[in-house]
Amino acid sequence: MVIDLTIDAAVRHLLGQRRDDGHWCAELEGDTILESEYVLLLHFLGRGDDPRVAACCERLRGQQQQDGGWAIYPDGPTDPSVSVKAYLCLKLAGDDPRSPRMADARRAILRAGGLRACNSYTKLYLSIFGLWTWRRSPAVPPELILLPRWFYFNLHEMSSWTRTIVVPLSVIWALRPSVPLDVTLDELHGDSRPGRERRTLYESFWSFVFAGVNGLIKLVEVMGPVPGWRRPALKKAEEWLVAHVEGSDGLGAIFPAMVNAVIALRCLGYEENHPLVQGQLRELERFEIEEAGEMRLQPCFSPVWDTALAAGALLAADMDGNEAPIQEALAWLLDREITVGGDWREKSLQDAPGGWCFEYRNDLYPDCDDTAEVLLVLAAVRGRTGELETRRQAAAARGQRWLLGLQNPDGGWASFDRCCDKEVLTLIPFADHNAMIDPSTPDITARVISALLAHGHDPGDGPVRRATDYLLREQEKDGSWPGRWGANGIYGTWLALSALAPLATRTGGRAGERLSRACRLGRRWLLAVQNEDGGWGESLRSYDDPGFRGCGRSTASQTAWAMMGLIASLESRPWSDDAAQAVAALDRAVAFLQERQLDDGSWYDRDWTGVGFPGVFYLRYHGYAQYFPLEALAAYRRLATPEPQATRRQPATN
Fold first, then answer.
1. Where are the alpha helices (H) located in 93-154, listed in sequence order?
2. For residue 252, is it left (φ>0), alpha (ψ between -120 and 50) or beta?
3. Is the residue at 539 inside a domain?
4. Could you give the CA distance from residue 481 to residue 489 in angstroms, rounded to a whole number?
5. What is the mean pLDDT of residues 237-242?
6. What pTM was computed for the model?
7. Among 144, 257, 279, 381, which one is most buried in terms of CB atoms within 10 A?
8. What three-state secondary structure class fits 611?
9. Residue 643: pLDDT above 60?
């Protein structure tokens, strides 16, 4: 069959992407904020003449949009923070402010609100270089680290990624480094203020309260001397930084935390040649990708995620688990199980370590999503013998226990922590990066349910039942589920259907009917948003404007997500009258993928489908257009196998 040829070509391509030790790690692409901040870090270190500055600036020029600004995803609206930093870097590189490029950029920035519209982190960066006053930057007092756990707002009420960014940032705010530049940004102030965000009375009240606290902190700073707790706060922040660098490839193994760590360590008196500073700089250098005279930076590496997804796709395509690619990937994943405690212990229901992180080495921050995905792979290769099987079983048991310890009271799972969901804290002045908390999300919860079911948990088990109830509560009125880490309704709906459909087949009575109804509603939403070309796409703009939900240019990865969601939904019985429509939609989707498969067996997604922080930072996973179409086509091929069911039509094989 033609579909076999399509799958075989995709398998060959994916196997060709393996690293020498059997793992996968595709490029992870972010917006130009990465190149801009790298340039500014080099200027902070007195390396403005470093060749990498010119290479990064060339990347900035190439990413400027037609309207003159820079966006956080291709063809997105001009983002003031990203654009101001890019404009500053080009000005430092010697680009003539009167040139058409710079004039266009200036106009776009002013239309977007100018410097006033930039987020808090950008203003703090500009303050370092004397381009924005510290007085007008939000307070990030290091005393936060001294607040006890019983206090309503303390360090562990922030998301894990915010902690790694804010602790060094609080050191920077307290010590206020000054690196004057020979340029200004006076032309970007403008006269107009950006439009105000609509807020409820509750939000307005707490915004007012936090603004008052922010002002009081600054007043105390001005009146001086600084209260006696500043020195112990800085000391504890320093100890925290040093401890959290251990066991990781840089602080938090993520770009912004490492940049802040370098600046903070220098503020604390560490010389540039100190091993701690040099260690962070080396890890940042690993993110560099130089190509055709340009340099781009990755925000982090994704090897555990990529390896689990690649192995899962190959297994779905009927590769035997005893074959070398699967065995080598399994051994690689088992070697990266996290066996030490981390920040998660503060709120977990149990203390025993387990799980996996996203990156190569980030021992303090395993996450639920990666752990669940690895557990799915471990379940798919069960039944082998020998030492590797013994390790697999033990790691799977530890991973499940670790996940169960992080289930939230609402029944769902978040990314890194438990009970990190105090919405009011998102109104703190320095929390405008839209990532202050880490609440339960449908996509992660659904993946955890799938992993638990794969390892033999019963639908009636307490954790599974509570998670199922959470998912049902989170379903939107239109039948979809929101996606936190992938764009957006298509991603969330695929994962929710993949978790709920098997439960529907195994649950009787009213509970089973409720699950089946949820699956039918999810299927109908997917059918309603299929594009004319047979594919699916959803713009990242859907996070800001619900009118874009399910709407966008078709991509290979999102088409695959929708296909897998539909296929999963067809497994829930009884079939409804739209089942035939779903099968026809799948036929069209297969044709879409086959027509767009490249000669080397891969696919290419121009549009980004990954999410860092909704509304603030998005990603293009270069591997997504390889893993997911292969897995979806393999699932379709299984569906196409004739079965003795009068209600099911065998899909066309194109």
1. 100-111, 120-128
2. left
3. yes
4. 5
5. 96
6. 0.93
7. 257
8. strand
9. no
3-state secondary structure (DSSP) of residue 555: strand
Rounded mean pLDDT of 355-376?
97
Six token digits for residue 293? 């005279």
List Cβ neighbours of 92 (8 Å cut-off, separation of 6 or more): 39, 43, 48, 53, 181, 183
Distant-in-sequence, close-in-space partners of 205: CB < 8 Å, separation ≥ 6: none
Confidence class of residue 210 from pLDDT cuts 50, 70 and 90? low
Distance separating alpha carbons of residues 56 and 40, to the nearest angstrom: 11
- Those residues whose C-beta lies under 8 Å from the C-beta of residue 35, and which sit 6 or more positions away, are 56, 57, 59, 60, 86, 89, 295, 296, 297
Tokens at residue 18, please? 């393996």
Q: Are residues 219 and 360 in the same domain?
A: no
CATH of the domain at 83: 1.50.10.20
> Rounded to an integer, what is the distance from CA 469 to the centroid of its chain?
25
Rounded to whole angstroms, what are the CA distances from 33 to 118, 298, 618?
12, 11, 11
Residue 647 has pLDDT above 80, yes or no: no
> pLDDT band for position 247 (50/70/90)?
confident
Question: In this predicted structure, what is the pLDDT of residue 645?
Answer: 39
Residue 653 counted as domain residue: no
Percent of the chain clearing pLDDT 90 (strictly above)? 81
Q: What long-range pairs does 281-288 form, CB within 8 A, spacing at least 24?
A: 283/249, 283/250, 283/253, 283/258, 284/38, 284/41, 284/250, 284/255, 284/258, 284/259, 286/249, 287/34, 287/255, 288/52
- Tokens for 225? 């001397």
Residue partners of 303: CB distance under 8 A and separation at least 6:
23, 24, 25, 359, 360
Q: Is 649 contained in some domain?
A: no
Contact by Cβ (8 Å): 468, 416: no
Catalytic member of 79, 306, 369, 421: 369
Q: Give the residue numbers spanning the domain of 148.
A: 31-297
- What does the DSSP 8-state code read for residue 651? P
C-alpha span between 569 and 460 (Å, rounded)? 20
Structure-token pair, residue 525: 């939403």
Q: Which residues pair with 555 in a beta bridge?
A: 536
| Annotated catalytic residue 369 | yes
